[in-house]
């Protein structure tokens, strides 16, 4: 494979995933959200309101709002959004209006529409985000607001979506606004799930005066690597090693057993890990369509202590 092809193929795949994500988001709008008057925040929420009040096409309204937002972002924030944002915003508007004439709503129950519409929209947006794209909308508005005010981007985004939901309550009904709030929540969760993956591993922090023995047991019994960190007790001032070990869910009980057997007074902290890349877990692969980093695939085994 030539060097040029090697550079072009990942870029093509990235744009392809952006388009696939916008198709899924458009289906969420046409199948569930728009027919049931669920304005689930953002530019699509505003477009849903104008569609039911004035009959304006949802995709056209989204594009009309996104164009000035994108120009303002270029003016005040620079070129950080890039061409993938343009592709994502235009693609979402195109597919939303095209599919609206070819698909029928799958349900007229607002609760089902909020649940499935929110999840499908979040999955589609998550695919676009993983490929480095964006659908524009309130994300750009939030960054512009944060640029000129004391609001953080996250608070500005929450404010923008909140104003859209308030507008939905005034335009439709408070009950439909509550369904829209549910859809916004599920969309955020679905985006996180697509980008980060489902929790399938556990990170363990082990604080013990017998860290070396525990590390050796982890290597020999679990056949897992680990990292020794240096910690200091705030109360005693004593220096102790802190072991960081990543294990699968099925190995948690075995890890607890060997820690308890080696040092019953050890301090063990477990928390969820959404994605682990490296030997013994997932391969060190980039996001869909992204070029592999230099040296990817050359993973060396680490010793615990």
From TrEMBL:
The chain crosses the membrane at residues 12-34, 54-74, 111-132. The keyword Transmembrane helix applies. Residues 285-295 have a biased composition (Pro residues). Residues 281-305 are annotated as: Disordered. Keywords: Cell membrane, Membrane, Transmembrane, Transmembrane helix. It is found in: Cell membrane. GO terms for cellular component: plasma membrane. Residues 224-278 form the DUF2179 domain. The keyword Membrane applies. It is a multi-pass membrane protein. This is DUF2179 domain-containing protein. It comes from Limnochorda pilosa.
């Amino acid at each position: 494979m030539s060097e040029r092809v090697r550079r072009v193929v990942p870029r093509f795949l990235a744009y392809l995933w952006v388009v696939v994500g916008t198709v899924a988001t458009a289906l969420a709008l046409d199948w569930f959200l728009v027919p049931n008057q669920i304005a689930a925040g953002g530019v699509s929420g505003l477009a849903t309101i104008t569609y039911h009040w004035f009959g304006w096409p949802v995709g056209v309204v989204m594009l009309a709002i996104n164009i000035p937002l994108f120009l303002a972002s270029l003016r005040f924030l620079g070129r950080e959004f890039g061409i993938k944002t343009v592709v994502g915003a235009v693609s979402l508007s195109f597919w939303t209006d095209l599919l609206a004439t070819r698909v029928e709503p799958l349900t007229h129950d607002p609760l089902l529409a909020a649940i499935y519409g929110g999840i499908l929209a979040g999955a589609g947006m998550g695919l676009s985000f993983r490929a480095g794209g964006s659908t524009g909308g309130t994300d750009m508005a939030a960054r512009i607001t944060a640029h000129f005010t004391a609001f953080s981007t996250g608070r500005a985004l929450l404010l923008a979506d909140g104003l859209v939901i308030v507008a939905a309550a005034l335009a439709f009904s408070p009950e439909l606004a509550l369904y829209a709030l549910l859809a916004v929540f599920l969309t955020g969760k679905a985006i996180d799930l697509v980008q980060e993956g489902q929790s399938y591993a556990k990170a363990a922090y082990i604080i013990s005066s017998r860290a070396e023995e525990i590390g050796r047991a982890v290597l020999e019994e679990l056949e897992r690597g680990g990292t020794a960190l240096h910690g200091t007790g705030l109360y005693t001032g004593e220096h102790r090693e802190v072991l960081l070990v990543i294990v699968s869910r099925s190995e948690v009980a075995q890890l607890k057993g060997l820690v308890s057997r080696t040092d019953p007074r050890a301090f063990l902290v477990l928390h969820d890990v959404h994605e682990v890349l490296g030997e013994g877990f997932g391969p060190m692969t980039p996001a869909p369509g992204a070029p592999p980093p230099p040296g990817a695939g050359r993973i060396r085994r680490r010793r615990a202590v």
